[in-house]
Amino acid sequence: MAVLPPLVALQGASITFGGRPLFSGVDISLGRGERLCLIGRNGSGKSTMLKALAGLIGLDAGERFLQPGTRVGYLPQEPDFSGFPTVHDYVAAGLVADDHSETHRVDAVLDRLSLPGGRATANLSGGEGRRAALARTLVGDPDVLLLDEPTNHLDLPTIEWLENELVAYRGGLLLISHDRAFLTRLARRTVWLDRGTLRDSNKSFADFENWQTEVFASEEQAAHKLDRKLAAETQWMAEGISARRTRNMGRVRALQQLRRDRAERVRGGAQVRMAVSESDSGGRLVIEAKHITKSFEPKSFEPKSFETAADPETGSTTDGRRIIVSDFSTRILRGDRVGLIGPNGAGKTTLLRMLTGDLAPDGGQVRLGVNLQMIYYDQKREQLDPEATIRQVLCPYGGDSVSVGGQTRHVASYMRDFLFDSRMIDQPTKAMSGGERNRLLLARLFARPSNLIILDEPTNDLDMDTLDLLEEVLDDYQGTLLLVSHDRDFLDRLVTSVIAVEGGGEVTEYPGGYSDYQVQRRGAAVPGEAAPRPRAAPAPAAAPARAPRKLSYKDQRELEALPGQMDKLAAEIRHLEGELADPALFSRDATRFHRTTETLQQRQVELAGAEERWLTLETLRESLEAGTP
Questions:
Q1: How many angstroms from the chain centroid is the CA of residue 472?
Q2: Which of 117, 125, 131, 614 has the highest local Cβ count within 10 Å?
Q3: pLDDT number for residue 523
Q4: Where are the alpha helices (DSSP H) in 195-227?
Q5: How many Å apart are CA 218 and CA 177, to the nearest integer?
Q6: Which residues contact 318 (CB under 8 A, 6 or more apart)?
Q7: Residue 293: what pLDDT?
């Protein structure tokens, strides 16, 4: 059976920007049921290519093909609300022209995204604007979805909702995103725009890093035939990535040990009290919060300070005050890496300000360690002067040298650490892309001496190379980190504990990364009931019976059998993904395509459940053997 033509495609496409070709002779196509991710550095031309596919900009050379009758939904990085006074007006513009009978779809999608249709578009926060743009893209039930950084400014509940929507989507999907967890779940084919060349892999995003390393290794071998400049640049890129990959497992082991140490403190007991005496001398204590609370008068509460996304469950006092934090305690020591998560609007920024001494709690107390030197990363990059050059930003007092960690380095050398070409040294900040400005702010901050780093949504607008770089810098950092982020993979790779701000005053700390938080939060759930939050256990009325020192026979047999079950499920998932990788499957046998997709989703859920069950039983076994059930 002949393969159906793609829904949308570029053939021999070339676009030049500012006299420089972004890409040339590119072929890319998207068919029904295909799920692609487009990877590349900031400034490489990814967004331009997406706009060309959407038909929003013309090509300098080549052709765009669109199958007749195909509806294309395009999500830009920066939506334009001009001409639309309300959210409802803006979203309704995404319906098929003149189809007024479908306006009920607008109300339905706004309800799913917790957006008030009557809200003025001029008053939307960053997260609300992003959700409105998503609603407009989805409301017309398009055959093709072109999504440019769809998770930017979204909180975790909304990201997970969007993931589930896209898993069920049957059209053609092309994603640009830096969110590895998002791409790993959704993308079954990877296209990589690198230095003007588009490479295509039929493998899923999960294999991208191995593929990237192989490409750079091959280029390094061939680079000897080229001029020195290209050889040096290719070697620098390849060595940087290879070094990160090589050191990855050592860092994973170190992070696991840090998480074990942090878990012992979070769980309470004698170790916490012992640490109090140690922190008074030697500067080990960074932040200690005891039973802090915070609430706001309804009139004094400023929504713009806290993104108001999917409206979190909020609590209130008898006098109508909104409770942000209720009776929360934590102890953060030198070297801890703490992630703050929660729905937009729940109060993460309020809690962060209290923990750093910028805002006084209504009740309880916060104690800061001595000689704290903080640096703060502001996601809006307001610390950068748009007229200043890179040289002026990094060397504010003149000269060509910057002091980093007590060592003096030439500014051009330091720039390269943050993936800048040395020829950009006198380029003004205002001429840079969002990702480049983010890298410059990181370079400026990390040159300053500090023992406490506060990062507020640092992953927005960053490409994966920059995320790798940021992760590497933070891995090597010996001080303490407070990180507000919605990037699950980034949290998993870095933090030793997670503070979840759930809304309604509910704030709880969980040892480990984001995946650990999910397991602990759901681990004690009963079918049909919400998982209880971990809290300090009440004192028993009488001495409990002596706990068993090993698993029950049934649990031990289950623990032994689970690895085999997981291997079997993983093999079946790989087989199903291989079937779905066939671009002609849908046109050849649509029924089989849908059946295979449903089976794949079911097996993925089963594997996730088996992995969580194994982790629960293995943790229980270790605690029983250690005598601390």
A1: 16
A2: 131
A3: 62
A4: 208-222
A5: 26
A6: none
A7: 93
CA–CA gap between residue 130 and residue 126 (Å, rounded): 6
The CA distance from 155 to 311, in Å, is: 11
- Asked if domains 8-216 and 290-372+451-520 share a fold, the reply is yes
Q: What is the pLDDT of residue 153?
A: 81
pLDDT at 56: 93
Say what the alpha-carbon torsion angle 18, 22, 27, 33 is, to the nearest 10 degrees. Answer: -110
- Please tell me the distance from the alpha carbon of residue 95 to that of residue 142, in angstroms, as a whole number: 9
Q: Considering Cα of 310, then 314, then 320, then 322, what sign does the dihedral take?
A: negative
> What pLDDT is recorded for position 186?
93
Cα distance between residue 509 and residue 403, in whole Å? 37
Domain 8-216, CATH 3.40.50.300 — does that match?
A: yes
Distance of CA 432 to the CA centre of its chain: 23
Phi then psi for 86, rounded to 5 degrees?
A: -125, 165
pLDDT of res. 482: 94
**Secondary structure in 3-state letters for 295-340:** EECCCCCCHHHCCCCCCCCCEECCCCCEEEEEEEEEEEECCCEEEE
CATH of 290-372+451-520, one of 3.90.930.60, 3.30.1180.10, 3.90.1150.10, 3.40.50.300: 3.40.50.300
Class of domain 553-625: mainly alpha
φ and ψ of 115, to 5 deg: -115, 125
- Three-state DSSP class for residue 23: strand
State how far the Cα of 491 lies from the Cα of 173, in Å rounded to an integer.
26
DSSP 505: B
pLDDT of the residue at 224: 55
Tell me, yes or no, if the pTM score tops 0.85.
no
HSE-CB of 209 using CA atoms within 13 angstroms: 15
Residue boundaries of the structural domains of the chain: 8-216, 290-372+451-520, 383-448, 553-625
> Comparing C-alpha atoms, which of 354, 340, 347 is closest to residue 483?
340
Averages of pLDDT over each 10 residues, the chain, 629 residues: 74 83 89 92 85 93 92 90 91 76 81 86 83 91 93 86 91 93 92 88 85 79 54 49 52 65 48 25 76 77 36 48 89 91 86 90 90 79 82 86 80 80 84 78 83 86 77 82 91 91 89 88 49 36 46 80 87 84 73 81 79 75 63
Q: Report helix, strand and coil shares of the chain as percent, to nearest 5.
A: 45, 20, 35
CA nearest neighbour of 306 among 265, 330, 340: 340
Any residues with CB less than 8 A from the CB of 245 and at least 6 apart, and which?
A: 209, 213
Of 42, 26, 11, the residue nearest 197 (C-alpha): 26
- Cα distance between residue 364 and residue 361, in whole Å: 7
C-alpha to C-alpha distance for 413 and 394, rounded to whole angstroms: 12
Q: Closest Cα partner for 266 from 539, 507, 515?
A: 507
